């Protein structure tokens, strides 16, 4: 990716031509072993039909074209039937097409190649032996929409072939654990992309790479070692900005309290259990499913509170690697010695983010690229970008690149740097796919921003006659204008003007393309800033709300434009006692939290500063009084209880003359905090 320079270079791809003295022999074993699980599921009976004759491994005709058979699991073996006639019982059964173009359908879905039927875990589990090219025809349309641009489909085809070839030595399955495979149900568009790239794979230092891909990288590619703890960083992957990825956005908004049981009789759940339900209908069902798979099988569960859900430990690519979650819930039938429902807790702290993502749901938390993770006293808000792990090819990024004019070789060169494309099997091509990129022709360009007249002027000179386009993209990769569109220009100097009166301050990308008379095209991206002479950010409606139970202050404010915001907390002597790191906020109502657990009583100043894209700044301040109620233990020893109940579980111990913080009063009990211990003690044992 280009950087902000006076010189803006556009590159053309030069294909190195090598003489072909002999054809590359097709690999004898260019086949895959694929266990069929995704579409078939767990079945004890399947129907099979064939478009041609299939024979057993001994050469006997087993099923003829047009016939229908049934395979059932009987006593751990496969029983085969034609109509009501039993043909035999088999521990396993392999059938092979007599002619290579025959298809065998299993419950209506056709497959190329041979099929080995086995019984695994009491279910029929076929294994498809299929040529890689036929395998790809069932993969590419299931991994990328067939209506997308042909160059994106070609890039996906080469990446999928590379992935398959890399894993060829072992048995894979047809699920997202590897690549989604749909059998012979392909599409003519993806079939064409596969045929036009037949046998081509991606290599690094002569070895076939692990061609990872995901839906959207959120605008930033990622290293394999930052996503998966095992393995070293691979030399053909990198962390870099992807201006073409649409930065798929996702959000998680979750109420901390899902059910209020304060007025419910926990000794009589039958009176209310079926009438109440959690507020959230998306994440909670996933959490319940996880609980049932982790110690609470066959239990009816009510999740009352989710006080913690957060992601931390970001790697250099910006993706979180650790996460924490806390669940408070009840399982029907689990009661204490008094016959009341017993509160259950699950708390995971700083575990792999993949574990938390698996709990909340991959369709909810679409990636590990967490842009913001925060909470207040009642709600959890998490925002992120991307869909998938972000390593290797971005499918949406490939789509946008193809639509912008990039060919599949350029697309793959960006997502798998330091690699070459080579034909692994099949007919040799006259054009080597090992593509060196040379600086053949150039556009000398400069950009000047006029903040008074709200315009950017591009001046550029051409060394020869060229067809030129210049597109301007925003920070989400969307094209917002095209100052120069497919203009055939002679050698010389030119000027293009972009009016910026209707756009916000920020970073934009100029994407220039040049095409010579032979049709060869290349492009390069240059980022630049727009800093209009606009008013500074305006921060209004500042509100603070302290919660002495969590010992956090929620600081809310409204900002009039997208800005980087930082918050400082100062004590009465002007000393900084808290800093909330600068990060980007969008225009509108926003909030942050300050933890005052280690802070003494007093009056504190909150200073909120904001800087917009034009580096203009504004700062406002407000006061926050912290008035904790302190107490002293008046007994020789007292027990901290989890609830305001003598029979409740003990969570800690306090001793005479120890100081503590009184958070709340509940009848004859105080809710208190001492260090990390929070719970209830009897009021009579504490003096203020």
Name the features.
688 residues; mainly beta; seven-stranded mixed beta sheet; six-stranded antiparallel beta sheet
Please describe the topology of this protein.
Layout (H helix, E strand, L loop, with lengths): L11 E2 L17 E5 L9 E6 L3 E3 L4 E3 L4 E7 L2 E6 L2 E6 L2 E5 L6 E3 L2 E3 L2 E7 L2 E9 H12 L6 H17 L5 E2 L14 H9 L3 E5 L2 E2 L4 E2 L9 H4 L21 E7 L27 H10 L8 E14 L5 E12 L12 E9 H8 L9 E6 L3 E7 L7 E2 H9 L4 H8 L4 E4 L13 E2 L4 E8 L4 E8 L3 E8 L5 E11 L2 E8 L6 E10 L5 E10 L8 E9 L4 E8 L3 E8 L5 E10 L2 E8 L6 E11 L4 E10 L2 E5 L3 E5 L8 E6 L3 E8 L2 E6 L2 E6 L3 E2 L1
Parallel strand pairs: 2-14, 17-24
Antiparallel strand pairs: 1-26, 2-13, 3-6, 3-10, 4-5, 4-9, 6-7, 7-8, 9-12, 10-11, 12-13, 15-16, 15-25, 18-23, 19-20, 20-21, 22-23, 27-28, 28-31, 29-30, 29-32, 32-33, 34-35, 35-38, 36-37, 36-39, 39-40, 41-44, 41-47, 42-43, 44-45, 45-46
């Amino acid at each position: 990716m280009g950087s902000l320079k006076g010189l803006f270079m556009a590159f053309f791809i030069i294909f190195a031509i090598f003489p072909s003295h002999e054809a590359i022999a097709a690999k004898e074993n260019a086949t895959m072993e694929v266990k069929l699980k995704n579409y078939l599921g767990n079945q004890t009976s399947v129907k099979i039909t064939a478009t041609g004759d299939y024979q057993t491994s001994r050469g006997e005709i087993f099923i003829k074209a047009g016939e229908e058979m049934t395979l059932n699991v009987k006593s751990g073996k496969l029983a085969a039937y034609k109509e009501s006639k039993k043909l035999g019982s088999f521990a396993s059964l392999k059938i092979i097409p007599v002619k290579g173009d025959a298809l065998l359908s299993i419950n209506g879905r056709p497959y190329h190649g041979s099929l080995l039927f086995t019984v695994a875990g009491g279910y029929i589990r076929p294994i498809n032996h299929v040529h890689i090219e036929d395998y790809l025809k069932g993969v590419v349309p299931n991994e990328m929409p067939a209506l997308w641009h042909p160059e994106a489909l070609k890039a996906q085809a080469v990446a999928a072939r590379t992935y398959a070839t890399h894993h060829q030595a072992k048995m894979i399955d047809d699920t997202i654990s590897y690549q989604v495979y749909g059998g012979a149900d392909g599409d003519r568009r993806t079939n064409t992309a596969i045929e036009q790239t037949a046998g081509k794979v991606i290599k690094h230092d002569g070895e076939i790479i692990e061609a990872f891909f995901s839906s959207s990288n959120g605008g930033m590619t990622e290293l394999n070692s930052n996503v998966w703890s095992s393995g070293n960083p691979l030399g053909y992957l990198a962390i870099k900005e992807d201006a073409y990825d649409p930065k798929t956005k996702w959000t998680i908004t979750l109420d901390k309290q899902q059910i209020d049981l304060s007025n419910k009789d926990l000794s009589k759940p039958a009176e209310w259990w079926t009438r109440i339900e959690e507020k959230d209908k998306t994440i909670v069902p996933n959490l319940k499913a996880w609980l049932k798979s982790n110690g609470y099988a066959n239990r009816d569960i009510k999740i009352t509170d989710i006080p913690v859900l957060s992601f931390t430990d970001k790697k250099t690519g910006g993706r979180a690697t650790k996460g924490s979650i806390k669940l408070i819930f009840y399982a029907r039938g689990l009661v204490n010695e008094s016959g009341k429902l017993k509160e259950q807790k699950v708390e995971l702290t700083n575990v792999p983010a993949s574990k938390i993502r698996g709990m909340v749901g991959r369709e909810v938390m679409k990636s590990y690229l967490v842009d913001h993770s925060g909470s207040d006293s009642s709600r959890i808000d998490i925002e992120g970008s991307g869909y998938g792990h972000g390593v290797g090819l971005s499918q949406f990024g490939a789509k946008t690149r193809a639509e912008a004019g990039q060919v599949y070789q350029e697309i793959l060169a960006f997502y798998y740097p330091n690699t070459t494309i080579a034909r692994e099997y099949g007919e040799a091509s006259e054009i080597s796919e090992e593509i060196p990129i040379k600086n053949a022709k150039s556009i000398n360009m400069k950009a000047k921003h006029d903040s008074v007249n709200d315009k950017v002027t591009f001046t550029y000179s051409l060394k020869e006659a060229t067809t030129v386009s210049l597109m301007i993209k925003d920070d989400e990769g969307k094209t917002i204008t095209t100052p120069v569109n497919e203009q055939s220009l002679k050698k010389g100097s030119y000027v293009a003007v972009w009016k910026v009166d209707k756009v916000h301050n920020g970073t934009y990308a100029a994407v220039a393309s040049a095409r010579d008379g032979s049709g060869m095209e290349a492009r390069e991206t240059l980022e630049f800033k727009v800093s209009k002479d606009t008013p500074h950010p305006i921060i209004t409606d500042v509100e603070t709300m302290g919660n002495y139970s969590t010992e956090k202050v929620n600081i809310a404010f409204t900002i009039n434009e997208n800005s980087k915001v930082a918050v400082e907390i100062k004590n009465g002597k002007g000393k900084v006692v808290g800093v909330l790191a600068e990060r980007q906020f969008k225009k509108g109502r926003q909030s942050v939290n300050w933890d005052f657990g280690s802070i003494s009583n007093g009056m504190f100043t909150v200073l909120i500063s904001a800087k917009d894209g034009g580096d203009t700044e504004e700062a406002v301040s407000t006061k926050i009084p912290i008035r904790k109620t302190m107490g002293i233990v008046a007994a020789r020893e007292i027990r901290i209880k989890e609830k305001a109940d003598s029979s409740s579980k003990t969570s800690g111990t306090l001793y005479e003359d120890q100081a503590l913080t009184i958070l709340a009063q509940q009848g004859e009990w105080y809710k208190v905090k001492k260090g990390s211990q929070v719970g209830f003690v009897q009021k009579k044992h504490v003096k203020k």
